[in-house]
User: Fold Pectinesterase inhibitor domain-containing protein from Nepenthes gracilis.
Amino acid sequence: MLSKVVNSTPSASGIQPNGFVKAAILAASDELVKATKEIEKFMFEKPGEKAAYDDCKKLFEDAMEELKSSISHADRLETKKNDVRSKFHNLRTWLSAVISYQETCVDGFAEGELEKKMRKAL
Assistant:
């Protein structure tokens, strides 16, 4: 994903550290939106599958909130190296939570074809 961000960021060589951070977070947000749209096409026929999907929708909402918080935090980063380092911990925590939500979503499905499709979509 980082190469995608660098290649899609105009004049990446002149961008400030907070710009790279923000671009990466926006790319993650875009991927989450794409995954959500893909998963909406799946058929959830069994009650357990439907419940797991409902849990995923809530987790995706939480993930988007974490990403929005991360973007807001990235906007407030100063370009000084020390500021980026000191605030990076919070950003990493929020982004780790997003990954955790993804894994929790997939773990809600029983092993099988649907679980594989969910993992691939995410």
